[in-house]
Amino acid sequence: MIATAQAPAGLPRPVAAMPPLRRWLAMLFRRHPQTYPPLAGVSALISEQALAVTEVNGAGMCVVGYRGLLNPQDRFSFVLSLDGTDIAGDAVVAWRRHGGLGAAFYDVSAAERDRLGQWLSRRGDTG
Asked: What sign does the dihedral 114-118-121-123 (CA atoms) show?
């Protein structure tokens, strides 16, 4: 006898399994940060280190010059300074290599995301 389970009506069907978190986060940032120049007027404060930012979008950021103990999948707090506008929140390390660090935004308030979106719009980026 084969047992089958049926979901109650109205519930969504199960979603296929997500790839491992590290691989999924690494897909967000495929570039090597050391090959791109830092963005003018943009910096990030991570673990009390002021770092140059080479890329920022609605999903996360890439920084160069990080010297610390954060490893992939570690969560940390940050302050991102965008031409005088500060955005604070939490992020997750997607990858780390050669002093570069890619981070996916994890916990950023709606107001902070709005300010980031406005800044990206002024620059002509899609976020």
From this structure: negative
pTM: 0.69
**78 exposed, middle or buried (CB, 10 Å; 0-12, 13-18, 19+)?**
buried
Region of 4 on the Ramachandran plot (φ > 0 left; ψ -120 to 50 alpha; else beta): beta
3-state secondary structure 56-93: ECCCEEEEECCCCCCCCCCEEEEEEEECCEEEEEEEEE
Q: How many residues does the chain have?
A: 127
User: Given its phi and psi angles, is residue 121 left (phi above 0), alpha (psi -120 to 50 degrees) or beta?
Assistant: alpha
Q: What is the pLDDT of residues 36-64, one digit of tens each?
A: 788 888 999 998 889 999 999 889 999 99
